[in-house]
Protein 1
Amino acid sequence: MATISIDNISDRELLERTTRAAGAERHATAELLALSGALDSRRLYLGEGCSSLFTYCTQILHFSEHAAYHRIEAARAARRFPIVLALVADGSVTLTTVAMLRPHLTDANHESLLGAARHKSKREVELQIAALAPRPDAKALVRRLPTQREVPADLVGPAGLVDGSMASSSEALVAPAADACSKASAVHLAAAPPAPAPSPRVSPLASDRYLLRVTLSGSAHANLRRARELMAHRAFNGDPTVIIEKALALLVTELERTKIANVRRPRALSEAPSSSSSGSRHIPASIRRRVWARDEGRCAFVGTCGRCTETSRLEFHHLVPFARGGPTTLANMALRCRAHNGYESELAFGYSPRIRSAGVGS
């Protein structure tokens, strides 16, 4: 392949070439899906010495197992529903989306399901599928999490979990697990020494119910038990779900109070502009509340392709930099994610390793 020189091209040309390359890749992927679907239907992989299309994709085309799976699923979906090729080619849906939706696509619903999944994230598609086929609520239970050395390999399930009767270590486990779900639906709460546990994950069971799976420390498990004891005088059956819901509600209330001054009885403060001349970067609570409400709790940076969609790691940003005398007023304040806060600081003051590494804004 010829060496691609990009060192001397302008920023605008780099963006345009990247966009064109992404489009070319999507069209090539759509073409590959069409070819793979035809190859699959003719079973041409057999003549090539492969027992399956999956083997052909991994051993002859040298795709990873993950890439081969998604391409095969999408190719078979496109073979039945040709609209998939057009949606993949224009970037409306990804291979992951098609692979996830394929078991649910029918002649009657494929257009509506694929249309609803356009430009959706994997989590949003998972929620879409959960609404189509709701799963039962998880059953709350408490187990002990075994250490790896205490569990024979032939007794460990596909997700590294064991039945509660086999757990024998000092690790604590709290797991909502549905009867209809596999052992992989367990939620772990572990203390030191750590045992192998699934990664934190939130999976939708239905349109308004989620399965939470996390690993916690022994002290967190102790707090959980203490909360159950303190709530025992109420009409409470000990379900950890109730405790988690109440704890999260209290946490969100506290975080909103400290981050955006969201309180029950806000003071009616007049907006007193402050600038760098005062030597303080303090942002009054009334301004924080109004900026957050105006910007809808989302980064307000607008680029050439639209407004940033980030809603986490938000910071209060001075449009006219504080260091240059910018006042701390509603008109001069806006929400920025950490990346765009640092980016605008670089535009205003030049590149700084401190700004880049720490996300320090203006």
Protein 2
Amino acid sequence: MSDEQFAAAPEWTVSEWLNVAEPLNLAALRGRVVVALAFQMLCPGCVQSALPQLKRVHDTFDSSRVAAVGLHTVFEHHDAMSPTSLRAFLHEFRFDFPVGIDAPDPAGGTPLTMRRYSMQGTPTLMQIDAEGRLRQQTFGHDADLRLGAAIMALMLEAAGG
């Protein structure tokens, strides 16, 4: 596919970043493949499959070439999924990749990044190429081998191969 077929990934609107010294944004991650996961810590599919998979991506690939990023996108059970609860959850499960808290809609609707990406729910996995274009967005879980192959293809593309 030609480059024109892929739109720039919308910037994330994050109220707070965890597990990083400085806030992240897509412009700062340019040059790396970005694997981002929108999740909720009370989502069974996120906890059982998607978050462990993102940790494997984070632990497997060179962070100078692939950025694994979580986006805590809360659209239900707001009181139970506070930033304090999220910090404890990340610590207990040893999820040490960067996690941004998707900014809530001031009017009480869908969180801002979730709306911007037209997500159906969680987990949602996004693959963003080194040029900042959204190449794949999947609602639900994808197989490790398929994701690994897609990441490698984007890495080869970024290297000019």
Protein 3
Amino acid sequence: MKIDSIGNPRCHLAECPLWNETEGGLYWTDILEKRIWKYQPDENSIQMEWEGDLMVGGFAFTADNDMVLCTHKGIYHLSRTSGSENRSALTLLFDIPLSADERFNDITTDPKGRILAGTLNKRRRDGILYRLEKGKEPAAILHDIGTSNGMTFSLDLRYFYHTDSHARTITRYDYDLDTGDICDPQIIYQGLEANGAPDGITLDLEDHIWVACWGGSKVIRIDPEGQMLQQIPVPARQPSSVVFGDAKMDALYITSACEGCVDLDKGIDAQGRYLGGEVYRIHPGVRGRKEWRANF
């Protein structure tokens, strides 16, 4: 299976790739450099969409193509109205109390437009998963997470999958779409150190989960019970997340990061290993599901 780099400027910590079907473009955040990037495959163009003083750990699009940013200083609405004086204007939506070393790290939306957003901190034991809904106060639905990471839902929406990269686990919860409540946790995937830590995840239309393996130089595909079906090598040590995109939703985009490198320009560590920073694309032979818009 051929894997290609899209040729983006090297990112320090590329994360949370998201396909915008109305624009036909891929977006992702470089958390540590406080930037959001956009790739337009039909034009083969890459541009910086946003730059500021917020570490954006995850974002979602709204119905009118604005963005909701989950950052180390709270949850913000980003106006993207074309030609408006308010374009790129930020409005605080939720002032969530975060510790000095805490930030959001990956999010997802559900069909009702809720956002589920998880945090991490340097202690890697006090992360929280929040449920964000329009007109309601943020609700903490999971506590004591090591590194809250990738999330998705089963095709029938009965289950919610959540990744804790520090524990190397993906846990399946029963999901109540009416309330957004989760219950009955079942660990379906326990990663081995040799495979790296499960990071960002996404679902294909065969109800299988694609997992970026941080430190493992690979992306894997697992079934709903956590059985590994496929491994795809990635030419970077730190793949960080995955999402389907392109017009037919048949391309899998893979972000990667050079966090921890000794040379940002080269993206290598002290042992000379290439960590990453590029965004890659493959065509795995299956299609993905479109992400839902946030209702804010």
